[in-house]
Specification:
Layout (H helix, E strand, L loop, with lengths): L2 H19 L39 E5 L7 E6 L7 E8 L10 H6 L1 E2 L5 E2 L2 H8 L4 E8 L5 E11 L8 E3 L2 E3 L35 H4 L11 E2 L7 E2 L10 E8 L4
Length: 256
């Protein structure tokens, strides 16, 4: 082969490598055999790992899921929010019957009514989000039915020995980010904070934030607080804690 031919062939290979290096292959982390993966999307009991594997034609409602390592859990699957297949892990309303000032063990295993207001449970948040890369959407609604949301492309909760610490990725939404940016005049930050309850204070405040409000990922104390009775707070939107409702939804993230 002549020098000119070898050079032309080398240039062609380099061009193909350049194209390949610029291509981002996005996949949903959990795949069934029919999607070309070897990981089952269902538990041994036959329940899906999360709501993203409920039929997209299904209406929003109650389903049973079973994250890896978890017993079956009854949850609300949101099939109406953009993208469908969201697992609702928290729901609260201003006039809720729940006090939200629950103990560490109660927050660990969850409480409430999935048809109304509830907390999935920190242990199950850990087991759910360790399966794959997950994303999260925090949604609040004010008394005039206006909504705001903050979405983070990565969401996980560490295990109990790590204090069920919160981990969030990059922000997108229709309001200011109050969870991953530091606000010195408010409650500091929430990302990377440990979870605190009235009987297990892990915040960075000199007092106990959870004893005044409810269990949450506090710093000093909060920029956002969704776990409260008669107090749902989102700085810059419901600055007096008068939001009408809140929801936290999670689903597997697209990974590039």
């Amino acid at each position: 082969m002549g020098f000119q031919a070898r050079t032309s062939r080398l240039q062609g290979c380099l061009a193909l490598l350049a194209v390949a290096s610029m291509t981002c292959f996005c996949t949903t982390p959990v795949q069934s055999a029919e999607h070309g993966g070897g990981t089952s999307v269902t538990s041994q009991s036959g329940f899906p790992r999360d709501c993203s594997y409920i039929s997209r034609d299904s209406p929003s409602g109650i389903h049973v899921i079973q994250p890896a390592g978890s017993p079956p859990r009854v949850v609300w699957c949101d099939m109406d929010t953009e993208g469908k297949g969201w697992t609702v892990v928290q729901r609260n309303s201003y006039n809720t019957e729940i006090t939200w000032r629950e103990s560490w063990s109660t927050y660990k295993y969850g409480f409430g009514n999935v048809q109304q207001d509830y907390w999935l449970g920190n242990e199950y948040l850990f087991l759910l989000t360790r399966q794959n890369a997950y994303k999260v959407r925090f949604v609040v609604e004010d008394k005039s039915n206006n909504t705001r949301y903050a979405e983070y492309d990565i969401f996980s909760v560490e295990d109990e020995s790590s204090g069920y610490s919160l981990r969030l990725g990059r922000y997108s939404g229709d309001g200011e980010d109050y969870l991953t940016t530091y606000h010195s005049g408010l409650g500091g930050i929430h990302d990377n904070m440990k979870f605190s309850t009235s009987d297990k204070d892990q915040d960075q405040s000199s007092g106990n934030c959870a004893s005044s409000y409810g269990g949450w990922w506090y710093d000093k104390c909060q920029n956002v607080l969704l776990n409260g009775k008669g107090y749902i707070y989102w700085a810059g939107f419901c600055g007096s804690g008068q939001c009408k409702s809140s929801t936290i939804l999670v689903k597997p993230a697209d990974v590039c």
